[in-house]
Amino acid sequence: MIYKIYFLSLGCAKNQVNCEQMMSLAQSAGHEITPSPAGADIAVVNTCGFLASACEEAIDHILELAELKRSGELKKILVTGCMSQRYKADVLEELPEADGVLGTGSYGQIVQAIGAVMEGDRPCLMGNIHTAPQNGPRILSTPPWYAYLRIAEGCDNHCAYCVIPSLRGKYRSRPMDELLDEAAELASAGVRELLVIAQDITRYGTDLNGEHQLAALLRELCKLDFHWIRLHYLYPDEITEELIDTIASEPKILPYLDIPIQHCNDGILKAMNRRDTKESIRALFQTLRARIPGLVLRTSLIAGLPGEGEAEFEELCAFLREQKIERAGVFPFSPEDGTRAAQMDHVDGSEAARRAEIAVDVQSDIIDEYNDSLLGEEREVLCEGFDGQAQMFYGRSYAESPEIDGRIWFTAEETPEPGDFAAVRLTGVMDGELTGERV
After folding, report:
1. Mean pLDDT of 251-275
2. Would you put residue 338 in left (φ > 0), alpha (ψ -120 to 50) or beta?
3. What are phi and psi of 235, to 5 degrees?
4. Closest Cα partner for 259 from 290, 235, 277?
5. Of the candidates 294, 235, 286, 258, which has an alpha carbon nearest to the alpha carbon of residue 405?
6. Tell me, what's the pLDDT at 57?
7. 146 has which bridge partners?
8. How far, in Å, CA of 199 to CA of 360, rounded?
């Protein structure tokens, strides 16, 4: 039987790649991928399970789709991804709307699961998360000018607050030849910006032969026909001299580095099983800024971690002001089931949220100062569309990563197409985002 299948992917870009692979497998089996759940035979919800809030979001989507089932506009719902892996029993017992679950070790069994669900079974497929294949064709769900290249799966860092290792398994690098073949296909398809992703890209290759191979991989990727190569999730103490030299010397690699530090207090970092210290982070940032001109740093911070009192929180805010990190996502600590941090003493949720809001205000001042410093400069901007209400084009420079950072808005006498690069002179700020005019 041939079915109409709607896919919804929630959470991170790594999850999105898995969804793209499932879409390709379904299409190769003859099924039709439909852009809307209304009228579909089955909706596949690829969930995030990193935080309780992400699970709540996934449940909300499932319940919305259940309304379509009740009205006869949708027949079945299949729940896949990290929430399925983490709470498979709960999903089956407490969400009767779910007609089956598929874990993170079983993405390759999507066609089997579709068939079982449509035949009236309620499958629960949970493959080995440590050995599940990572490769395979994809149907890109990003705009045609950018795409993700996931170079590894899993994580071996075992931070005390994080459930990723239990959801995604041990760290496994993909073979370099396999990655280069996939990247070459993306370049041939017209992708201009390649985003290299993994839970920790700096560890790439160490599980294969004990050596860091990210720099070597990047040099090969730079030989392909990409305009930009962007790096996401570099673990601070795994950044090598070779990697810094490669980033600094290869013009295609953007001077935009996403280095999650989570906190700066030595005691908290140690308790969270982080291998950094405040001084080592400070020294790394100093080195990177000295050797990579125009560097933009992105990080993530957690307010309210176990061990954080008012003094430790103020230390974090002071460190943020001192380092002037251009991009920072700030999150309140979430004591997740199954993590060591959840068993430690920590502030309550409302206090963690209050501190996170304060840190966001600190970061807003830093962003405002950074934006003001750019006025009058020219930036290469990747155009992504036109807003009829604002009567302006919008896009991103190297300093804005898709989905997580803001946009640059600009006017242009000569109309750029989405996916084109344009030189834009920055002239102002609108609602915290830069504005300008095409040169």
Report:
1. 97
2. left
3. -80, 130
4. 235
5. 258
6. 96
7. 193
8. 24
